[in-house]
Amino acid sequence: MTSNMTRRPSLLWFDLTHDRSTKELIAQFEDTCDCKLAKNSVLPHGEQADMICIHFDRPDTPGLRLLLEIKRTTPTIPITMFTVQHSEELAVWAMRSSVWEYMVLPLTTAERKRYLTALMQLCELRRNAGQDKTLLIDHSPTLPDSIRLTSGHQKHQALSNIMLYIDQHFRDSIDQRDLAKRCGMTTFRFSRLFKEANGVGFTDYILDKRMSFAKQLLDNSQMPITSIGYEAGFKDPSYFARAFKQFVNCTPSEYRLASQLRAVAAQPPLEDTTIEALESLVQSLGS
Question: What domains sit in the chain, N to C, each tagged with a CATH number?
Fold first, then answer.
């Protein structure tokens, strides 16, 4: 019998393409995942898939409305949106609709590998929710090739190895002075380059990583809030509660309750304003 730790992720696919090409996309995942195609784009009753994958070539209003309906019907199953036609407006819409991942086709080998790694980690985290050991999901997209050789990228290349170290150890106590020495820089220069490269200072970057990790645990586990604070790198539960409220504008308990309510509450029908927004989005894609 296959254990939870080794069971292949189960993907439920919706083919919303005009040329019915989803089977070709599914073929890219069948070697590592159990894939099932929803018949007539209808969600099977009681479906327990690890991920719902919705495939578009040219997103239209009915298709985007169906995505919202699927999310409302099964709020506990994350959704990945695959699309050939891409725009900044569509990506923002997907993000605001709480789509777990937004993938632009065709997939590069690196993007497919990154997605599968994050998917495996998500499945393991969800299947072992409530246990002491948790995983940090590497859900960050790879750098576009178009910026890899720019002068700005070369300028901050000295930080690249340090950034990987920080992303793997942000829950531990990290001394900025030690990191600066590793880069062969003064603390002042390291601090200035770090902010220039990342848009925020070192302390704020660490805090953001810890808060994102804490929110992930609040969303996907039943761990006590005090334990979540420790797991995220906060040694003082009171400071964790204060910092979380300042960062998220609510307490950890309030955030968890709101997350649970979103997952189980019956949602109202689409409002006219929502339909108009979808139609406007689709029109912008065609222009």
Answer: 10-107+271-286 (3.40.50.2300), 152-264 (1.10.10.60)
